Amino acid sequence: MAKAFASTADLAEKKVTFAKLADGVYAYTAEGDPNSGIIIGEDGVMVIDARATPVMAEDLIRRVREVTDKPFKYVVLTHYHAVRVMGASAFRAPYVISSHGTLDLIRERGRQDFKSEVGRFPRLFDAVGTVPGLTWPNMTFERSMTLFLGKREVWLMHLGRAHTKGDIVVWLPREKILFSGDLVEQGATPYCGDAYLTDWPQTLERAKSLGARKLVPGRGEAMLTPAKSRKAIEATQSFIVAMMREVRKGAKAKKPLRRVYEATHARLQPAYGKWVIFDHCLPFNVTRAYDEALGVRHPRIWTAQRDREMWKALQG
Ligand SMILES: [Zn+2]
Q: Is 266 exposed, middle or buried, given 0-12, 13-18 or 19+ CB atoms closer than 10 A?
């Protein structure tokens, strides 16, 4: 039987956890759905990833209002994916920050990505009609930026290409807490449709060298010890390396994409099949990995139409 397209059949609501990691530092997680982070400073609040729609952002705002009445000052976009940025307007924050790389991607493919993501996973875009338009950063940087939320120091860093060309992490150097965005996942399959798979493991090495005591991944629960934080990074690394190895092997043998997809699925299923969105991600992942193995340097733009054609070719 053909599999339902992407996650169109996934309708089960997830339970949200709003966990305190340190004084004024919170993780908003939801059993494998996209996470957000909150950092409260003396003069305002930073939101890390803004939810998929303004209506979905309201739930995060409500939880923040239970712990502080300070205004939202910064919305940080860890990367350009619609599911993390389209709720930004709800916070009415004066500063929306991303890397230059993310701004490039929003300009180049933000509109197509929005349509594509809503089509793939409608549950994650509750009340999608409330999205006022694309989310645009009004402050960007190339490599790194340091912000002071009062006395609290926050580093924003682009550690290299990985999940997209513009990924940034948010690092609290004193508390040693890392918000990784989709650079690291925990118990969830890394999405690689826009990825740089040769670079990703090295970028993760840089993240690992920070020595996080706690880590909030892009999806999955927050890691509350150094050992668990490190393990989450290494598990993501292992997945990327294993997938790319299998795809390179098939591409080198000049096998067609569908055969490479089937072989890669069979190879990864025993170790990673239990990670959420495994069957959703793998066709997109292998398509991008195959391109990269054949020398296509930059990920091709996904459109709602290309999504469906690819799915039919690999799963039909
Ligand atoms: Zn993403």
A: exposed
284 CA from centroid of ligand 1 (Å): 13
pTM recorded for the entire structure: 0.97
pLDDT in tens, 156-195: 999 999 999 999 999 999 999 999 999 999 999 999 999 9
Write the CA distances from 182 to 40, 228, 236, integer angstroms: 22, 17, 10
81 Cα–ligand 1 center, Å: 5
Strands (E), 173-272: 177-181, 214-217
**CA 42 to ligand 1 center in whole angstroms:** 30
User: Which residues sit with Cβ closer than 5 angstroms to ligand 1, an ion?
Assistant: 81, 182
Query: What was the pLDDT predicted at 316?
Result: 78
Can you give the pLDDT at residue 261?
Answer: 98
Mean local confidence (pLDDT), 232-246 = 98
Least Cα distance to 138 among 196, 91, 74 occurs for: 74
